[in-house]
Amino acid sequence: MTTTSQSGAAHPAAPSSDRAFLLGLYQRIVLIREFEERVKFLFLEGTMPGTIHQCQGQEATAVGVCAALQAGDYITSTFRGHGHALAKGLSVQELLDELYGATTGCCKGKGGSMHMGNMDKGMVPGIAIVAGGIPLAAGMALAFKLQKKPQVVACFFGDGAVAEGAFHEGVNMAAIWNLPVVLVCENNLYGASTHIGKVMKNPKISDRAASYGFRGETVDGNDVLAVLAAAQRAVEECRAGKGPVLLELLTYRRTGHSRRDACHYQPKDEREAWFARDPITRFAEVLLARPDVKQADLDAIKAKIEAEIQTAVVNAQQAPQPTLANLTEDVFA
Amino acid sequence: MKRQGIAEALRDGIAEEMTRDSSVFCIGEDIGVPGGWGGAFTVTLGLSDKFPGRIIDTPIAELGFTGMAVGAAMMGMRPIADMQYGDFLFLASDQLINNAAKMRYMSGGTIKVPMVMRAPIGATGRGSQHAQSMERYFTGVPGLKVVAVSTAYDAKGILKAAVRDDNPVMIFEHKLLYGSKGARAEPGAVDATSDIPEEDYVVPLDRAVVRRDGQHVTILGWLLMAHFAAQAAEQLAKEGIEAEVIDVRSLSPIDYDTIGASIRKTGRVIIVEEGPKTGGVSAEIAAGIMEHCGESLQAPVVRVASPDVPVPFSPILENAYRPDVARIVAAARNLTQS
Ligand SMILES: Cc1ncc(C[n+]2csc(CCOP(=O)(O)OP(=O)(O)O)c2C)c(N)n1
Ligand SMILES: [Mg+2]
Q1: Which atom of ligand 1 has the smallest separation from the CA of A186?
Q2: Most buried of the four, A51, B28, B93, B167, by CB within 10 Å?
Q3: How big is the CA angle at B179 (ends B53 and B201), to the nearest 5 degrees?
Q4: Is the Cβ atom of A185 under 6 angstroms away from ligand 1?
Q5: Domain match, B287 and B318 both
Q6: How confident is the model at residue A15 (pLDDT cuts 50, 70, 90)?
Q7: Are residues B244 and B100 in the same domain?
Q8: Angle at Cα A119 formed by Cα A115 and Cα A122, nearest 5°?
């Protein structure tokens, strides 16, 4: 694995030694995992409609990046956006309601799993067209620059997006105009069923940045503190007018690409190697090495999350469904 | 004879054409990955073992691989391009519309572009960007042939005709009609299986087909709507209304001989379209009907289509978006009473 960043070393300005802050990060990571596992169950059980793209195994990328952002900053996301949404502060309830197509969902049931978002919380609804969010995020960053606002936008996309024309066009313009966009590539080695080795001659995605004249780095995406540190550096540079920055976060999707995909294209040894690098167990080890964190603290966090999700599921299954009048609303501003 | 669904029939059709003609190859995303799905709807499942090197998996690069299909076709190959979801045709449309469709004309008739683009459409619980009825954007592009397949028999015959055609042909398929199996099975799928002959056959790219005879009203549809129209006709028959159901099938060009013959008989027509009413293919068909056989109409043309909104996610809204049997039946009742 090519990891060029200093693993685990948080940025000096980060309150990374702060117990409450660290447990907060842990809470978010576990929340995403538990949420996704519950959604998978509900989907397979047949009570949840639609399709799903999940992020088990990739929780640290979303949490690390979003923890480096401030209120007023935005993220753009993809079809695989449940984790991004929870990391950015959307509630379990508004996401579950959306997945059930309820009017109380974050997009009133009109978006669904692939289009999770809430502008009040700084998240553009997921763009399900691969790479479609990249020029969009660059455009948001252009607005911030023109408006002389200090905001940044973190743009999440996968390794697969790098092959699209939209990547090149959006990234190049972000570069020439020094736009405040953190380009966050979650490299999970696969685009759908296709391994990156089949579709890139140079699999080191962060190298792309140099060809556009800006900085890129590859980071262990399953180490939440390494992601946080890299994201903090990137955000700071962007705010200082030295954007964009490309972060390649190496991670792995533990679950299917979508729906009932059994991942037969992922070799067993590769899966096992990555499962051994799970972001939750690794971060738990870091935390438990501290004298002030006990296993019971972590267990309590998980128990609280389970209860929260349980309540939210019950609510979501009874949440108000749209009526025909809603069909033609929201087309125009 | 064997009973097959659309995905299987397309798979066999592709395999037979690849065996017959070494210039045929497939190109697209996730179509030949070992352990993968054979494309999003299993159409190319197993073909990469049979035809090593000729089922080409691409990066996620629709503009790129479509342009490469055009270029390869110009150099004598016969590519079958696979668009994972029809919605991504927007990314590929420059190559399709500006290059593939115009190359013959711009070159003064010297260049051939014998390529096929296959694309699934239809609202299926995936939300706004994996749901659109894309055929409307390509019908009426001079230089493109556009067809829509609603049965396994047609799918295989049309695929073969398209591969052998010397022009760019777009084949639209519906996610609920593939009959994809296993983990790729679609909830809400509709049976589109056919008895498939053992021998080679083609289905012409420019003919509609009458699916059911009737004298009171003509109902036109394609893809899923052809099935819903047929189901509606069965219900209507119980009420004494005999609907003639035509699967339009060829969207560019449109077969006004078949459509006109029916309307001259029934004097009434309903066009059913999945997709927003405004600017849809049904608008073109309605105008064409006025020109070809408008004098035979005893009542104005009726369209049953989706409202002018993006495809919503929520199942309740999506079901309201997609025209259904009940709406077709109601429209036919109204029209035959007028
Ligand atoms: C333009 C476009 N092409 C193809 C797809 C179908 N598709 C959805 S996700 C996906 C793979 C994306 O891979 P990657 O960008 O690495 O993201 P990941 O799924 O690994 O999160 C593909 C091919 C799409 N949604 N949009
Ligand atoms: Mg990926």
Answers
A1: 21
A2: B28
A3: 65
A4: no
A5: yes
A6: low
A7: no
A8: 100
Q: What span, in angstroms and rounded, lies between the C-alpha atoms of B118 and B86?
A: 8
List, for residues A96-151, the tens digit of each pLDDT value.
Answer: 999 999 999 999 999 999 999 999 999 999 999 999 999 999 999 999 999 999 99
Residue A29 sits at φ, ψ, to 5 deg, of -65, -45
The ipTM of this complex is 0.96
- State the Cα–Cα distance between residues A57 and A251, nearest whole angstrom: 7
Domain count, chain B: 2
In a domain, B332, yes or no: yes
Tell me if chain B has a CB within 8 Å of the CB of A112.
yes
Instruction: Answer whether residue A7 shows pLDDT above 60.
Output: no
Q: Which residues of B touch A261 (CB under 8 A)?
A: 37, 183
Strand partners, A219: A249
Residues B26 and B149 both lie in one domain: yes
Residue B201 within any structural domain of the chain: no
Are B79 and B177 in a shared domain? yes
Smallest Cβ–Cβ distance between A160 and the set B34, B57, B60 belongs to: B60
**Cβ of B61 and A163 within 8 Å?**
yes
**Predicted pLDDT at A13:** 44
**Cα of B162 from ligand 2 centre, angstroms:** 34
Cross-chain residue pair A328–B35, CB shorter than 8 Å: no
3-class SS at B219?
Answer: strand
pLDDT(A6) > 70: no
Residue B20: which CATH number?
A: 3.40.50.970
- What pLDDT, on a 0 to 100 scale, did the predictor assign at position A10? 38
Using CA positions, which residue lies closest to atom 22 of ligand 1?
A192
Bridge partners of B271, per DSSP, are: B220, B303
A134 CA to middle of ligand 1, Å? 13
pLDDT at A16: 64
B117 is written with which tokens?
């683009």
The 10s digit of each residue's pLDDT in A224-247 is 999 999 999 999 999 999 999 999
Domain locations in chain A as residue ranges: 2-317
Cβ(A128) to ligand 1 under 6 A? yes
For strands B302-306 and B269-276, give the pairing: parallel
Structure tokens at B275: 């997709």
* Whole-number pLDDT of residue B183: 85
Residues B216 and B271 grouped into a single domain: yes
Q: Does A203 touch chain B (CB under 8 A)?
A: no
* A219 closest CA partner among A65, A28, A19: A65
- Is B37 among the domain residues? yes
Architecture of domain A2-317: 3-Layer(aba) Sandwich (3.40)
Same domain flag for B231 and B329:
yes
Q: How far apart are the CA of B135 and the centre of ligand 1, in A? A: 22
Q: Is residue B137 part of a domain?
A: yes
pLDDT-flagged residues of chain B (< 50): none
- Which residue from B84, B94, B130 has its CB within 8 A of the most atoms of ligand 1, so it is best to mutate? B84
* CATH number of the domain encompassing residue B295: 3.40.50.920
- For chain A, what is the mean pLDDT? 95
Q: Assess whether B62 carries a catalytic annotation.
A: yes
pLDDT-derived band at A260 (thresholds 50, 70, 90) equals confident
Å between B189 CA and nearest CA of chain A: 14
pLDDT of residue B137: 98
Furthest CA-CA distance within chain A:
58
Q: Which of B60, B62, B95, B129 to mutate to test the interface with A (most CBs of A within 10 A)?
A: B60
pTM above 0.90, yes or no: yes
